Amino acid sequence: MHRATSWRSVCSLVLGIAVVVALPTAGWAHGVVGKRWFPSTIVVEDSFVSDEAAITAGHRREPEALTTDFDAEISKRLSPDLAITLGGSYHIIRPRGDAVEEEGATSGFDNPEFGLRYQFIRNALHEVAATAALRVSPGGVGQRRVGRLSGTTVSPALQIGKGFGDLPDWADWFKPIAVTTSVGFDLRANRNEREEDAQHAFTWGVAVMYSIPYLQSFVRDVGIPWPFNRLFPVVEFNGETLISGPDKGKHTAFANPGLVWAGKYFELAASAQIPLNDTVGRHTGALVMLHVFLDDIAPDIFTWTPFHGVLGPQTLPR
Description:
13% of the residues lie in helices and 47% in strands. By secondary structure, the chain is mostly beta strands.
């Protein structure tokens, strides 16, 4: 009984972390609207469709286990406003406390994710963009030992991005600020009659960033040299609330302060992952991301679309 209880705790922990890290997130799109170039952020998905690929790694310590997660995703535009995505996760779980001797470390792949994104607003004057997204994670494909769900998860979401370049001139120093938000639901089917596997959730995320490239290019050149003139200080907040099942009403929330550095062909990002409530433990985790701009590396190949020809890259202003 003790072994079963411990394994259930580890699985629940893995599920919770995977949901929080991956779902509001997989924030791996970048794009341009007006003069604003939005970078990809680690946690909160932004409001663009694009041709790109990324790998994110996360590490956290919980009372029951040390967890390390690797997430990968590739996105491909089918038209200027429509894109498909494919993602996957690999988890390494090292139980702590009494569970160490009984279970030892384990690792494996989680269920894959397939997505469709449609950008329906792109307002250059006010630097606003909005995207509707739908992700489907088929159950039972990943490995049981890392707590993959047997039922399918469907995740509709809405992402909105806003830059503040339209502020009046007296507020010049605030014009480089941009905000992206993501809200959605995880709707889970149940195939193994475990109620905790089929709990629906409301997910949310907010990212507030300051664009040094925007400051230098469109507000005032303050002489910040390379490589610091490519930085985006950012603070992200994300979480979820269970809206059904035995844990209905349970909240999780994180604050993720960090930095994004964007070059011509790739982007690097790192952030801390600070729990905002006891539900997700008390220890700060770490997240890092390597993001590759396929549209800049080989625009004639990766930005080709079946119905609109070659779209070209969405490039950071230089």
